[in-house]
Fold these 2 entries.
Entry 1:
Amino acid sequence: MGIVVSISRRSCKIRRFPILEDADVKQQIATLLSSAIAQLQSDGKLPTDLQPRIQVENARNKEHGDLASNVALMLSKPAARPPRELAQMIVDALPQSPAVKSVNIAGPGFINFFIENAALTDIISAVEQAGERFGHCDLGQGEKIILEYVSANPTGPLHVGHGRGAAYGDALRRLLSAAGYDVHAEYYVNDAGRQMDILAVSVWLRYLDLAGEEGVAFPANAYQGDYIWDIAATLHREHGDDYRVAASDLAELTGADDEQRMDALIDRARTLLGEKKYAFVHHLAHSTLVDYIRDDLTAFRVAFDQWFSEQSLMDAGAVDKAVEKLKASGHLYEKEGAWWFRSTDFGDEKDRVVVRENGVKTYFASDIAYHLNKQERGFKHMVDIWGADHHGYVPRVKAAMQAVGQDPDSLEVLLVQFAVLYRSGQKLSMSTRSGEFVTLRELRHEVGTDAARFFYVMRKAEQHMDFDLDLAKSQSNENPVYYVQYAHARIASVFRQLEEKGFIYERGAADLARLDNDAEQGLIAQLNRYPELIRSAAAKREPHQIAYFLRETAQAFHSYYNAHQFLVDDAGLRNARLALIKATQQVIANGLDLLGVSAPDTM
């Protein structure tokens, strides 16, 4: 993992600062290299139109240096010079820096840097001064991003599949904010359309059963879960028989297939109940489940700035407006009474229905209106997190945006694979249609919010994930979240022991030059990686990088803890080691917070 500085790119522009004021040593070295190249350009020794991307990596072999850059190899061709010759020119032009002990050139033209120990240990002071904000950066430069995630249909409780999108989305929100973006988090509530009607009818049919109406058939394509009974029970408890009709009134519903018969049932329910009563059942089902989802996400430490209603788009005429825009663009055509978007013009495999033959707008029409609404609210950069099963939906939404004159590249879609649960080595079956699934609430109660969130973001979001429930509950070094949290708690215990022994931690008395053994140097190197890690993880939309880093940092600390005493009689060494582990504790807490995981002082 390295730091990349592109002189021409606004998002990563070089800041001018005294070399030792930035505790991120890689950033210091990148700045030195960019200054050297700029000087060579100014002297006419390199073309002025060179736009180098400077990469600074951890050296693979510590004998060759602490850090290395391949910038000479990258610039060799455009500069028309052999890489080793160019590397020597860059080294000769490097400004003096107290952070650099020595520089050499290796292999075909790698520039290797040996860093002064004082420059590396400066990270300890930087952590102490920045505290909870250590690692935050201005990568985003205040750019507004609207981040939409979860957005599950409010037709049932959130299940473990939704949980992964929730954990990933919220961790990304925290990460982007730490990287300097102005993030607006949003949940899009699909509270309009046919699925909500199916939900309302499902509740009503269960209500009729509770009211004693026998012989009412419950369709296989209705919502089957126990939560439907719960909502129906509320309706019956609070309104008695006010919504009851005879079972015979629902007999002989016709239709060529299950879906057509469901549509006929919805129409019959509207007629028998009347619009006012039907709307009440619809609202009861919808509001109950939205509240349930909201409570689940709050308990899961997932936050949103706004819950945006699809129905509000309908009520405001935004969906009609979007359809008219598509018509005006010439990309809609009528066929058999329906209106179709000619998405094949934009590379889609087939055209898509926007308005059905019965005049009802499709979800696609609502999604077009929603993304137009986002842009109208001033968000030029939209990030949507969808389930991986929606990958085919991406090009058609982008095509529709392009068709109405919007920039399709302003929409960034990130895909999340569902998680597969295992207990005692056995895969748990999941079926949302039958209502047989593990809810997010059940998962949270079984393994805890911390374990669930950490496990969800341990892998790339687009990769398949097996969730081992037994491992998540175990209190062992094999459980990664326990291992990381235990490192934080262990450090807290050291400071409790400090008081018990009558010692006082004097940060100003710490002789950081004493931190010279391999365990200390390794831990210091880890801390120095953290600021760069925030930039990298945010730019790549990869919170799992934070999880990996935390596991590595915990491992480095535990090894240090097991090999060395901290509360030694030598005050200079004692304070130096305490300063190091205190900084380590802060970085672990900061990283856990980015993942929405707590940092306990006792375990």
Note: The chain has 19 helices and 16 strands.
Entry 2:
Amino acid sequence: MEIVILDLEWNAAFSRRTQAYLNEIIEFGAVKFLPGQGAGEQFSCLVRPRVGKHLNAAVQKLSSITEESLDSGVSFMGAVSRFRRWAGDCVVVTWGPSDVLALIENCKYFSGDEQVPFLHRFCDLQRYAQTRMGWGTQEQVGLERAAELLGLDVSGIDHHRALDDSLETLEILQKVYEPESFAQAIQVCDEEFYRRATFKTTYIRDLDNPLVHPEHLQFTCPGCGKRLEASDKWNVKNRSFFARFDCPDCGRKFMGRVMLKLKYEGLVVNKKTFPVSEIEKPRAAEAGPVGQMDLEIVQGVGVLRFPAWAGSQTANAAFSTRIGGVSRGEFAAMNLGFQRGDRDENVAENYRRFCAAAGFDPESLVTGDQVHRTEIRRVTAEHRGQGVWTEKEVLEIDGLVTDDPAVTLVIYCADCVPLYFVDPEHGAIGLAHAGWRGTAADMAGTMVRRMAVEFGTRPQALQVAIGPSICGHCFEVDPPVAEVFQALEHADRFVAPGVGEKSLVDLWECNRQLLLAAQVPAENILVGGVCTMEESDLVFSHRKTRGRRGSNCAMLALRG
């Protein structure tokens, strides 16, 4: 049995043909493994990109691959043919399933057939190693972390280059390889394999879905163990359902969260309980500085502004506060989220009040369904009202761009980072939602490059502001999240030790570093310095209230 360890490098490229992003493969690297003999022949091949004209700056820095070096590469299907001849009939091994999914997507895009010509038998080494070493499979262990756990010295390996990563993967395989268990981990790449590999996990957001059963919404009281039904109606918040529970026996009050994830294997139900948190009353309506922003009170409504942009002739930028709305309770008072359990008429009135105070046309608002990724959409006057007054036309959008003064861009944030982009040269703007996942995936740099494609924006002329969000002193994360940020360049500038095994991550500084890497000058980057968690009586904070909150909005529109 011949085994080939394969690693790929790819570049996230936006395809005008499909109007979606493609992880376009730019490098193949592989090494043969002969059980009992060790490493065999090596394979390395650069792939000339056809979809992405420019390499992501983070990809260039991590991999040292340049656009010039890719000019001498072969086409993707040419690389597939070369690899097929070199590998022969083998078991393909990768670290995790993502490389296989990228292969399938690229084959489908470039040849129209999702079948990978050389993929007949496959082993996910990440899963095999985690099972074999007793690490569990709940959390995915990264390649470098696995090498560290196995005591391997990989200091001489050039990470994020396909051949070097395949050699590191080989060292891990040699450490954990056992013929019988490995043979059992091999999958035959038949039709079911492809269905499983391409199946997209979805989250159920409708309680009327026939897959949702009554027992999914029942909780056991943490105090006395009594089986309980929700005391009030269920609210949809992000990918989860939340409701309050009041135990009549022991008096315990708590919040129940249910996440319903539809995977290939079936429905996965995840439940969690939280103490009922105290909700602060909105701050008194008094104007003044907050962080590096100004709080304006207009017609009794609080509006946060960037002072440096006060005289801008290009764009109107604002961030909402809890001051001046009509909502009550945990939504008090300026809640701008329709699907959080507040009354729709209250939210609609809040939009009208905030837009009047901040200088936006309420009919011009456009937003998307944010999913903590880096998808960006260009919008025009035809999209006015979508996501606020009418149904969202396109889901899974975390960034919006436009050069049309007839629309106002809107994103929701309640600890996540709002990023404002203004191009005064071309009269174009962008607004992005960057949670920790979006930040780590370089939403900042992705927006800079997308505006360059759409409008000819020069990064050197771009004005960017980082709005109210959780600060580096409050954003405490567990090791798996910390490792994601520690893998980024200049991590020492935005990752610091926390309590115990936890770390503190400064999303403001991380986004600033990513903007600098995208060639935005330091003097063009504003940091608002308003922490949603520390200022939770002024703006809504998801962490501070454990999800019992309304929604803040960032808004941005061209003037004229």
Note: The first helix runs from residue 57 to 63.
